[in-house]
Amino acid sequence: MATGQLTAFELREEDLPDLARGCAVLGTGGGGSVGTGLLAARRAIRECGPVPVRPLGAFADEETVAPLSGIGAPTVGHEMIASEHEALALQAAVEELLGRKIAAVMSSEIGGSNGVAPVAWAARMGVPLVDADGMGRAFPEVQMVSLYVAGVPYNYIVMSDVVGNVSVLRPLDGLWAERQARALAVASGSHSLMADYIITAAQARGAVIEGSVSHALSIGRAMRLSTDPVEALQQELGAHKLIEGKIVDIERRTGGGFVRGSVIVDGVGGHRGELLRIEVQNENLIALRDGVVLASVPDLITVVDTATGVAISTETLRYGQRATVLAWPCDPLWRTPRGLEVAGPRAFGYDIDYRPIEELRSATV
Amino acid sequence: MPPSDSTASTPHGSAASPRDLRVGIDVGGTNTDAVVMDAGNTVLAWTKKATTADVTGGMNAALVAVLDQIPGQHERIGRVMLGTTHATNAILERRNLGRVAVIRIGAPATTAVPPLEDWPDDLKATIEAGQIIVRGGHFIDGYPIAPLDRDEVKRFLGSVAGRADAVAVTGVFSPAFPEQEREIAELVAVELGGDVAVSMSHEIGSLGLVERENATVLNAALYRVAGEVTGALASVLRDRGLAATPFFAQNDGTLMALEYAARYPVLTIGSGPANSIRGAAFLSGVQDAVVADVGGTSTDFGVLTGGFPRESAAAVEIGGVRTNFRMPDILSLAIGGGTKLRGDASDPAVGPESVGYRVSQEALVFGGGTATLTDAAVLSERASLGTTSPQWDDGQRALLAAALGVVDERIVDAADRVSLGKADRPLVAVGGGQFLIPDDIPGVTEVLRPDHGAVANAVGAVIALASGRWDAIVPVGDGRVAAIEAACQTAIARAVEAGAEPDKVEIVERTEIPLSYLTEPSIRVHIKAAGPLGFL
Prior knowledge:
The complex is a heterodimer of chains A (365) and B (536). Chain A has 365 residues and is α+β, with helices and mostly antiparallel strands. Chain A has helices spanning 16-26, 34-48, 74-79, 86-98, 113-125, 146-149, 174-187, 201-204, 212-225, 229-237, 337-343, 357-364; strands at 9-11, 51-54, 64-72, 102-107, 129-133, 157-161, 166-169, 191-196, 199-200, 209-210, 240-255, 258-267, 275-281, 283-289, 292-296, 300-305, 322-328. Chain A folds into 2 domains: 3-212, CV3147-like fold; 229-364, Beta Barrel (CV3147-like), CATH 2.40.390. In chain B, α4 crosses α5.
């Protein structure tokens, strides 16, 4: 997206449904349900006022940015909802640790619930939200974040849980960060708020994906204002329609703490006779037709309801749904050798080379 | 699983007074239907009456109408099964709802989203008598979030005394760890007395705090409505000298005993579609089918799988409140026998307006002045009914034919949408307007039109099973088998409590969903047990 045009704006209660719809689309099937985060954000705005959203360029080099996300099991977050105190406890710990104020909150992951919940955290902490995130989508692991790809050195992970425990970690690298943070989250009931890195605005430049919040908002707005939401999504995202059809098979299994599986979409209309298979590990990772890869991670693959355009998450996919599968290019950062090492097909155990969606489309269509 | 108690049964009791008849009543948006069936499941009497604004009037009229068709046999009636919209209407109209004190157990967790946060303001104002999030609740692994703060609970109860008709209690992970909800129920009895009823969330819904809490609060608000409807049914039975046992239909197509319905009135919501799908299955004798229930105003498409309605995966909203109830997965089209037709053959306008139950006065074939889908069906000889033979002009003929073409397209598309892509099952057409369904639908093997299909919903209420459900999170490792067995036993016990015969209860549904991001690999199991009602 054209980051040069980003301007500051204020996020109000009435903007939240658009944001949530957009974050769900960017969740590529994962990232957790946006419903509870939406309620928490609305509550926080009602109590603390609207949240200013500012482009990264509006912050001075030395200002502190806290990239935040929830870590844990999405199913747990739906039952053991967050505490309103988590953000304040984390803020106090970070400011004591660094001896300076947090100037802004940033979403670590714009896709799914972690794209919406930072609005609540920023509102409660009384700081603006940076119009940026660390993924431009959703990914399942802590190290799958742009700051890690860009080589920003790890300093701290600060975690804050529902009962008030605050923990500070100094992991060696992203892989240790994932392992240790995950273990702590489990001890806290599989649900914690996490600042994953604490960075300065200078460190963030070139190492985050800018415009994510306004991008999610415009996706949600385009869907709301259009009589053909899927078409509107394609326009807004520059997305390719891989298939329009019906979900005819879903296979789920657990492995390594993730829900893995595959989904089969049977084409209708102009796609009649086609079968599309999507490989899933929390997020939609690879789309294949007759064994040929049509799109793969880190490019984005989202299954949406054909009538409404609303994103269908991995956990709510079911037999018989009328669905359209869209795929579109990821941020260029993920297409670098380092980006593909962290979040390319092989990082998820698929022995295939990544090829950009644009290239695959011109080869297969 | 046997198709309910479909085999003829020998009722217990003396030969002089067999209690072998059952009455089913189903209250719909337009009509209230009733049937009387014998032990061999033969339909002895049936009726269709207009649903009244107070619901109770139509229910009584339908009951009286079928009783009049079986004079001298009233003492044979052993059971009355009622599927009703009393609770739904009370919530939609914000009428006669109780004031509820809302207690959530979970602080300091969960405070980011307080109770009733997503409720419509007017419904919240009508129902809420105060709310609190007290310290307590559990992590997913059973570790306490905080010890339960009993003093805080007592202070809160003191503050709502005299203002609250009922209390709703919802604890974090209470479906797995229900003790603290029970502890608070005991405190309520001590502090507020036995008149103030308590809804405990672990008895109402499954995991998902906000949705379960919403359903629990709605349940608590409905106690008065439940008392009224059970009272009204008891009183009409008494007036007619019937010593029948009443049962209530619930959202999943199974029955619950009166006492159970009085405790869980929210479960009566959404029983109509489930009843018509089950009734269609029974009348047609198939276990797997697409069902189309055509009424005066709308057509509901559902799917029957193994004798039960396929359930919706999406959250169900009741009166603007999100719950996690399992409801039949229904696709509704604004197509019914009373649907109005306008425009001309080149651009026919089909509904969504309908003359509803007034079709027998307003349709052209009944001498009225409104072109309806019933007229289109008569003209095309799909149906033969009406009181007059209108002199159709060419414009009318063309419009009606074109409108029927539009309707057929929508019906074919809907059948395809709900059929799971499998073209190996029949479509069962029921309801008063079933003649609108064409004989030839691509994607279904045949169209079945069973006898008494017009009152399939009331039949569905009669033949329903009693059921119980349970949800649990269980580890994938060594404890898995024992944990699933325990969950099955709980579901079976609940089915028996709902009225099922203990030695005939079976596990009819078992879903296992893997959970992500937990160190100990776990699955969420959902168990449903069901069985026929015991003999009298």
